Each structure stands twice: as C-alpha cells, then as structure tokens.
Amino acid sequence: MLEEAPCKTSPTLVILVVVVFTLLCYMDIGLQMAVVPLFVREKLGFSSAMAGFAVSVQYLATFASRIGAGRRIDTGGPKRVVVMGLGTGVLSGALLVAASLLVAWPLAALLLVLCGRIALGVAESWIATAVIIWNIQRAGVSRTAQVISWNGVCSYGGIALGAPLAMLVYHSAFLPVGNGFTGVGILAAVLMGVGLPWALRQPSVQPFAHGPQPSFLTVLSRVLPYGLVLAAGSVGFGAISALLALYFADQNWNGAALALAAFGITFVLTRFAFTRQILRRGGLTVAIISLCVEALGLSVLAAGHSPFWAEVGAALTGVGFSLVFPALGVGAVAQTGPESKGAAIGAFSVCLDIAIGISGPLLGLMIPVWGYGAVFLVAALISLLGVGGCVVMKRREGR
Predict the structure, then answer these.
(1) Is the per-residue pLDDT at 2 higher than 70?
(2) For the chain, how are helix, strand and coil distributed in percent, rounded to 5?
(3) What DSSP line would sit under 332-376, residue for residue?
(4) CA–CA separation, 346 vs 367, rounded Å?
(5) Does residue 212 carry a pLDDT above 70?
(6) Mean pLDDT rounded to a whole number for the chain
(7) Would you say residue 375 lies in a domain?
(8) Rounded CA separation 228/332 (Å)
(9) Which ranges of the sequence are coiled-coil (predicted)?
C-alpha cells in the first residue's frame, strides 16, 4: 500500500502547485476548440463534418497516446511526462500559426491544423494523466477524489477562460501579418511555454512501479465497466466541443463563446459545490444523478431554438458532466494496485477519449439529414444509457 505523502502545508495548496499545468493545457484546448471549426469551415472552405473532425482528431490523438502516457508515468515519474507534454503543446501552437499563413493553400493549411490538433491531443494525454498521478503522490492516495476534482476544475475552467479569449483574438486584427487565427496560435504556444520553467522547478517524485506490472489489457478489463459509463457521459461533451460553435453559426446567432463559457463555468462551480458528495453518497449514485442532469441539458439544446436556450442547455450539460469523471474515477482507480495507478487512469481515460473522438465526426454526419437538434437528442439518449450502466454496477456491488 502507498504511504500518505506528508502534507506540512494545506493539501489544497499542494495540489494547486501542480494542477496549474492542467489549467494551462486546457486554456490552450479552449482557445482551439472555439475557433478551429470556424477557421476550417469559413476560412479554408471545408465541410461541417471536416470542421468537426478537426476538433475531434485531438481526442483521437489523446486516446492513441494515453496508454504510453500511463506507462511512462508509472516507470519514469510524472514530472518528466508533464514537461514533455508542455513542449508538445508549444509545437501545437506553432503549427497553427503556420496554418494561418497558408490560407491560400487550403489543403496544406488543413494538414497543418490537423497536425497541430494531434500534437495538442498528445500534450493533453501526457499532462492531464501525469498531473493526477503527481498530485496523488504529493497529497496522498486518500485525497484521490480531491485531486481528480481539482484536475477537472482546471480542465473545464481552462476551457471557460480560453474560449471567449480565442473569439476575441480571432476577430481582431492587431497583427501586421497573418490573421486572427495567427494570434490564437501564438497565444496557444505561449501558454504552454510559460509552464515549462515552473514545471522544471518542481521536485520530482518516485514512480509507483516497482517490479513487473500487469498488462494494459488487464488493467483495462478491471476499469472497463466504469469506463463505458464514462464514455456514455462524454458523448454530450464531444457534441458540444465539436459542434456547438457551428450550430450557432448555422443559426446566425451570436454567443457561441458565451455558451462554451457557460458550460465551463457551471462545470467548475459544480465541482466546487458537490465533490464531497462522492464520498458521502458513493460514486455511482452521484454519477446517476449527474448523467440525468446532463441528459436534461442536452435535451434543452435539442428542443430550444434560440441562443438563450442553447446557452441554458450548455450550462445544464456542464452541471451534469462535471462530476461524472471523478465519481466514476475513484471506483476505477480502486480496481488496481499502487504499481499501476498511471495505467489505470490512462485506461479509464481512454474510454473518454474514444467517445469524444468519434462523437464529433459521427454526429456531424447526421446534421445534413436531421439537423443539429437530433444530434443533441441522440447525445442525451446515450447519457441515459450510462445511467443504466450505473444501475447495473450498483446492483452487482450490492450482492
């Protein structure tokens, strides 16, 4: 069993020192999420499906690199992986800058955007997974729920900060060369770059792994029931991240950045207010309630036909999705020994990556036939499937 890390200072302060890297990473994600689909469709002239794919390819890259991230963390320590992730994030921003300067050659620009999105996906995988394990080792295993919750606060808080900032930069013309997308790429690179010296200053911790480790498939099989429910709850976020800005543009509405910010703000506030309920009421109970609220928010998005109701739906979806990961993650991590905590977080997160990665392009294919309302309604129904999965696991635990 892992020993508790001695906390001479506040456990929250211990966590915040490292979780700032997650904040920087997801501010970068929020920057790109808000403007990449607009750039691909409006500036480069590609379809909505391709614009959705340009967003979702990041999550496919996160999925592809998640397994390696978990192993690197368990064997080499999380600090090294965080530093690698920040450097890769700088590369992502540089590729977006290059794409913005090649608008006259749409295909070349698109390829650079996709490469930048892939780089950001790898950076997300390495940073988000490594920060969780780094903080569990720094703050103690008993604070796993708090660690995961703070990681999520910085994740979607970063999106809430990054999205409106991206729209402000994208629609401005303050650079002597390039365009608004050039400014977004520069800002994305700078955000990741400022984290590098701070990460290098932090003390390293010993990796968990000592001796042979179970295979990734073994770890995946242990966390898979929790991961499948996480995947069901993540489809709604995939729909919002890939398609919400396009939905507003299609309806000639203003306020897409406000809707994304509403999602992030309610996500963060819910984490602050209700994380303790995971320990008090149990992770599966909290997950059931959360998925029902998420389904309600997506239904409002499907049925509402105004910017106001779209923003209300996004906000409710943020409330619902907020506690899904930590509520299920505590149970998932508990299925493995201390030598494979990184692999467990990686395997659990893979399910989120797959759901988000495929939901954007697949749901995007529905738009020409059934419209945006059907997309969000399907996502709501999938969230309710996750409720059913939680009920099944609760019954098994009760035996």
Answers:
(1) no
(2) 85, 0, 15
(3) HHTTS-GGGHHHHHHHHHHHHHHHHHHHHHHHHHHHHHH-HHHHH
(4) 32
(5) no
(6) 83
(7) yes
(8) 11
(9) none
Residue 1 counted as domain residue: no
| Residue 172, both tokens | 């401005």
Structure-token pair, residue 14:
């211990």
Q: Fill in the DSSP letter of residue 2.
A: P
Which of 40-49, 140-149, 210-219, 233-242 comes out lowest in average pLDDT? 210-219
Residue 263 has pLDDT above 90, yes or no: no
**Residue among 9, 89, 94, 99 nearest 46 (CA):** 99
Q: 163 is written with which tokens?
A: 């999205």
Q: How far apart are CA 125 and CA 112, in angstroms?
A: 20
> Rounded distance, CA 135 to CA 141, Å?
9
Residue 321 token pair: 């999705």
- Domain assignment present for residue 6? The answer is no
Q: Determine the pLDDT at residue 394.
A: 82
CA distance 125 to 29: 12
How many H-runs (helices) and E-runs (strands) does the chain carry?
A: 14, 0
Place of tokens 């506030």: 269
**Chain position carrying tokens 């029931």:** 225
Give the three-state DSSP class for 208: coil
- The one-letter code for the residue type at 286 is V
Q: How many CB atoms lie within 10 A of CB 115?
A: 18
Secondary structure class of 201 (helix, strand, coil): helix
Q: Which residue intervals of 39-47 are DSSP H helices?
A: none
The residue with tokens 């020993």 is 3
CATH number at residue 132: 1.20.1250.20
Instruction: Give the number of domains in the chain.
Output: 1
Task: Tell me whether residue 270 is in a domain.
Answer: yes
211: Cβ contacts below 8 Å, ≥ 6 apart: 339
**CA–CA distances in Å: residue 140 to residues 14, 92, 201, 221, 285:** 10, 33, 21, 25, 24
pLDDT greater than 70 at residue 9: no
∠ Cα 284 289 292 (to 5°):
125
Find the domain containing 135 and state its range: 11-204+213-397
Output the six-digit token pair for 209. Answer: 């792994």
CA distance 129 to 213: 18
Beta strands in the chain (DSSP E): none
